[in-house]
Amino acid sequence: MAGLMEDFGNFTHAVVRAIPDSFANEDSRRKKTVEVDLAKAQREHELYIEVLRHQLGLRVLELPADESLPDCAFVEDAAVVCGDTALITRPGSDIRRKETEAVKMVLKEMNLNIVEIDDESATLDGMDVLFTGREFFVGLSERTNQRGAEILADTFKDYAVSVVPVQNGRHLKSFCSMGGPDLIIIGSSEQAQRALKIMKQMSDHRYDKLTVPDDAAANCIYVHLPDKGHTLLHCTPEEFPESAKVFERLKDYLLIPVSNAEKVKVDGALTCCSVLIHKKV
Amino acid sequence: MTTEVVSEAEVKKEPEKADEQPAAPQQDAEQESEQPAAIQDGDTPRTASPQTDRKSKEARGLSRFLPPWLKRQKSQSRTEPSEDHEDKAPMEEQLEAPPPEEVSPQEAERDESHSIGSADTQPAKEEKGEEFPERIGDGKEEEDLLESKAGEKEDEPLKAEAEAEKSSLKPAKKMKTVTCQVTLLDGSLLPCEVEKRAKGIVLFVKVCEHLNLLEKDYFGLCYKDHADQKCWLDPAKEIKRQIRNCPWQFAFSVKFYPPDPSQLTEDITRYLLCLQLRQDIASGRLPCSFVTHSLLGSYTLQAEMGDHDPDACCLDYISEFQFAPSQSKEMEEKVVELYKTHRGMSPAQADAQFLENAKKLSMYGVDLHHAKDSEGVDIMLGVCANGLLIYKDRLRINRFAWPKILKISYKRSNFYIKIRPGEAEQFESSVGFKLPNHRAAKRLWKVCVEHHTFFRLVTPEQPPKARFLTLGSKFRYSGRTQAQTRQASTLIDRPAPHFERCSSKRLSRSLDGVPGLGMDDQAGATSLGRTPGEKNGRDPALELSSDSKSKLRVQGENIYVRHSNLMLEDLDKTQEDVLKHQASISELKRNFMESTPEPQPSQWDKRLTASPATSLRLRAQATAEDKQKSDTLEQAEVEIEETVVIKEVRKAPKVEVTVPEVVVTAVTEKEPEKKPGGEAEGRGGEGVTQRGSTSSDSHSESEDEAEYHPQAPSVSVDQIKELPEEEEELEVEAQPLEAEPTAASPCPTTEEQEPALKDEAQNGHPESQSPQGSVEEDEEDEGEPKLNGDASRAETEGFPQVICCSEPPVVKTEMVTISDTFAAQKTEISTLEVPIVHTETKTITYEAAQVDGAGDSEPGMLMTAQTITSESLCTTTTTHITKMLKGGVSETRIEKRIVISGDSDIDHDQALARAIKEAKEQHPDMSVTRVVVHKETEVMEEGKD
């Protein structure tokens, strides 16, 4: 069955998308009015892609940027891939809806089973979907609604899909991510802890948790590499010194700090910038 | 002790005993050791129950002389109170078979009509050999017919046939038999002939034998009721009474889906589980992704077809298989593609792989029930091994692990769970759901009780004792738990049975099971199967119990009482505060309850016999305890309301108040063996009166409500390693007392003891908490009540005469629970407690109509019973005097219940000493046989946790 625990963290491909120049000046898409250094962001992104390609050994499929879609680099929101199935989302922000088209195309080319959301009332951001290897948690946020979550559940019938309310305009993975097969990395904010509590209650499985001081630092990318074993992409000490220390507790892990300072300003966490796929040959 | 033994020797006198005991485990062991006997065991239950019935019959005889209300009471004590006439009549017949000596005159009369041969004397054995042994007289059947005439009509033809056949085979016996059509998991039909009044287990055992299935506890039989709902056939109850006028058609199916099928011992068991899952998948009940459908399908092919034959064109026949509710060509191709990769895999391995993948599906083993939440939104409640899942559409919106659930109850069409407060929370909360109807609510409740017991407990919880005023369903799962069945499975020692895997593409094919020796277990009966295709179909009527237990349960179920207050419940106390307004009512009830004896004389007798040294009136103690219990319970119950709302009950911190209750029971025994039963009856009578309007109609279906406290038993259970839960730790605190009920299971209990004590400490009842609760009662010999009771008794020890509650009182663990709950959570309770003691004087007198030759079997006649209450400054004394006539000897028992209330400064020890002393002085000619101390201290809310 797809997504067996043993497969968790095993990926072969990554879909990414370049950051358009409109990235920095299109503040309309976000409430944040932070200054974003476009060049810096693009550099970060390139480094990020390098890591995926060289350190993780993934085949990286890079989509060209679309200037009309400032957030298009955040491909995670556009699709949820689990096993051989890809659910093309319907992002909660209508100006981002078109981002899914290119992502869908590339996934289709990979021969994944493509599922699309027809329901006009449904919204779903990939950033709200946490797949633990055993089950899904879906954040019900400003970007993801009940209907969207239902469709996710319908798409991945093998797995339990539990809902977790997420407020304050954030996504579920704004403060958490998987750090290993049974390890949830969670931020320290009240919201994060509340969400964790809910997830624990909803699950038949017991997860370990790794709490980091900064919510943003809790978004990491876990990959299990055939040669290197557990591998974690996480924030750099420059960004979150306290949180970075926490990761050192992970023994037997290959820790790869990845700078994300600019993208994170617009809620562009590490996981946001790629769709990881395990495509058996 | 074997069930059989009970039935032959002890049952007569103490039918209840048999029931109460957790015979299942023991029997299991036996069964396994001797397979041939297995069949017997299966039947044994029946035997036992019949005897019980007999007893009831006797009671009936008495009842002629008794006022109607008394009769009523008796009926309750019977196995199946609800349908007095019809049911009883038939049952009695069966009962008659047993030993002639004991047959009461009345019975004898009846027997005449039947051809009771010497053969009948040993009903159990006959049953083994013949499926329908007990059917003695046909003439009596007419009585039964009352139940459902319509049904009868339908049955007639079948019956006729069956009988014809039967007669040809066994001319000596006249038995009405019916041919049941049992749909097996492979889709084939198995005609099974059973006696018309056979219990569910008879059919179940037959089917298992046909299948050559030993690990049967995971399975069960389903039928469809008139509303087209799938129901589990209760092995302990007569088939006919369950299905009513529905056709005798059943489906053998999996009831408890083993979370880890690899732990099953035999391949045949796994194979059957595979068949069930294939049905589940094909019907859509078990949702799968495309990939999983394909993968599972490929294993199915490998198991059924063997290695892929490159020469044959799979795609030709493959579409005959159903891999999914709707399968595309694409899926079939995928199936074949995967199928090819399984080359070399044996069928058993393929099945194992199938299961390894299927078990990971999120809906594996989840029994779904439609419901609405408190806001009327449609949701689904899913019962599974780990707890209760709440779904809205496909989304899981909540989950309550068993350890998190303190109580499960239903009332009318509402279903409630009480949730243990979280770490940071102070209050328990209750969540209510609205089910489509009452039956659905009950069905859900039963499924929960069963799943909790099966997966979380080491041994089944004893069904609540049939107390006189007890309301609601007493249903408990009495089959083997998963832990037990696993243990039993390790003993399976036979070569792997040969069985043929039939192709799932063909619908009707018969599994050639070698009709073998099934080891039957009562427990086995318990395991019900899920009817293929039905999600919700848990059977409402499921009262699985080992046969012996079944009696008790039945009683409970039948009893129908509108007042939820009367329910005996431990945990409820927590919320008692809410119920204050009902305090007065509760008091009244209590009084009655107090006087209510347990209708299970046999146990007492046994005990007495067992421990001659203590010629104590266990009874008395029990009663006393019962009283307390009942009080507690009552209060608790009140909480439950019809409204489906999520409530949070808040308990206001209270001032410390210590209310020790001292119950001194003095009993003069003129006969070494006296039976409480008589007393019980008398009391029961009272209770009946009060109830008045309690309708006899109580059927299992008619029950409005029932509760179940998963925690109690679960304490021990929770500790099972296999079922680790986060909440476990928390549980311990709250549930210590409840552990008691497990008395039946020796080991667990002991273990629990410690935690319980700790809990108390934690909760802030420091020293003085002598938990009443701790008093456990084992109804059986086996249970040694050493647990909490002993530890807590320290106070009592000072007095030589004081008997530790830990003795074999009737009262269950529940009591213990109560105290805990109190201490830990409630402050106000104590306030309520005080009022418990009341001033009521009742005298009931009637003449003994009949004395049975068999002293044991006949409970003494109640001569008089009165209750006098007096109050002084800080003590309230309730005296209950009972005079019984037993075997020509009269016995007077006096029970005093003294409630000492006051500040914490009271010297309880002194007060207790004084009370005992006074009691002795007042009745110099009597001896104090039992002292039960129940101390309750109110603790500030903060104290807990």
From TrEMBL, chain A:
One of its GO terms (cellular component) is mitochondrion. The keyword Hydrolase applies. Keywords: Hydrolase. One of its GO terms (molecular function) is amino acid binding. InterPro entries: DDAH-like (IPR033199). One of its GO terms (biological process) is positive regulation of nitric oxide biosynthetic process. The active site is at H171 (proton donor), C272 (nucleophile). Belongs to the DDAH family. PANTHER family: DIMETHYLARGININE DIMETHYLAMINOHYDROLASE, N(G),N(G)-DIMETHYLARGININE DIMETHYLAMINOHYDROLASE 1. This is Dimethylarginine dimethylaminohydrolase 1. It comes from Paramormyrops kingsleyae.
